[in-house]
């Protein structure tokens, strides 16, 4: 059943992109929400009821909510920026939830934090050279990227220390999530929006969330 949901997620995400390109923003929001609901259901199906799974599934739910909020900014354009920021905050909450799930499994948390801070600083220096954004968005960006970078460091550290289906799929999902966010930032604040980057962003994002959902099979 989880594989059927994954295929349905991919199909709905593709149709969502098509409707968004056509600027049919209301059906696009609905389709995106349904696509995201698929990875939530996938996570629920794959969950074994463990404490770790019980934390990760709410993270998937927060991602689904954030997805809808990010696209609502095109429906309510006069309130686009506040809606976008709220969506980013919900995504940030999701990253923190994911981090809460995998951090207890780490034996080198301090090292991961240090590496995460250094990599975040290097990445943000590069990103700020590529984009034009208001100070509020830059502040949110530093906090947001810092959280997902730390998540990646912990997830990869767990994979190196304890290779398994769970740590492997979760780490791969976290990496794809990070890359999708970088692409989203470049496409949103890097000048003229490019459809190719939008497609890349969505493809990487849904692949990442599905991998995180499927990682629960390894618990």
What does this entry look like structurally?
This protein has one domain (2-218). The protein is 84% helix and 0% strand. It is built from 8 helices and no strands. The protein has helices at residues 2-21, 25-46, 51-75, 80-102, 109-128, 135-161, 165-189, 195-215. Helix 2 (25-46) packs antiparallel against helix 3 (51-75) and helix 2 (25-46) packs parallel to helix 8. The longest helix has 27 residues, at 135-161. It is globular, with a radius of gyration of 17 Å. It starts with a helix and ends with a helix. The model has no long low-confidence stretch (mean pLDDT 93).
Name the structural class: mainly alpha
Could you give the order of the helices and strands? HHHHHHHH
| Secondary structure: helix percent | over 70%
Low-confidence residue ranges = none
What does the overall shape look like?
globular
- The number of domains is 1
* N-end to C-end Cα span: 18 Å
Strand content: under 5%
What can be said about the biggest beta sheet?
A: none
């Amino acid at each position: 059943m989880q594989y059927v949901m994954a295929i349905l997620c991919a199909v709905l995400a593709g149709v969502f992109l098509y409707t968004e390109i056509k600027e049919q923003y209301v059906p696009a929001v609905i389709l995106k929400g349904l696509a995201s609901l698929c990875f939530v259901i996938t996570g629920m199906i794959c969950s074994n009821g463990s404490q770790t799974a019980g934390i990760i599934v709410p993270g998937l739910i927060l991602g689904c909510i954030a997805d809808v909020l990010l696209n609502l900014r095109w429906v309510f354009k006069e309130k686009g920026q506040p809606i976008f920021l709220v969506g980013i905050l919900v995504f940030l909450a999701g990253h923190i939830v994911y981090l809460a799930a995998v951090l207890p499994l780490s034996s080198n948390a301090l090292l991961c934090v240090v590496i995460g801070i250094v990599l975040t600083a290097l990445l943000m220096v590069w990103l700020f050279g590529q984009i034009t954004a208001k100070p509020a968005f830059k502040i949110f960006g530093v906090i947001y990227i810092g959280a997902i970078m730390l998540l990646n460091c912990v997830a990869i550290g767990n994979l190196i220390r304890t290779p398994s289906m769970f740590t492997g799929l979760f780490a791969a999902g976290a990496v794809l999530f990070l890359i999708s966010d970088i692409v989203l930032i470049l496409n949103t604040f890097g000048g003229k929006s490019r459809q190719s980057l939008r497609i890349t962003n969505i493809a990487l994002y849904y692949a990442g969330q599905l991998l995180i959902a499927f990682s629960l099979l390894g618990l």
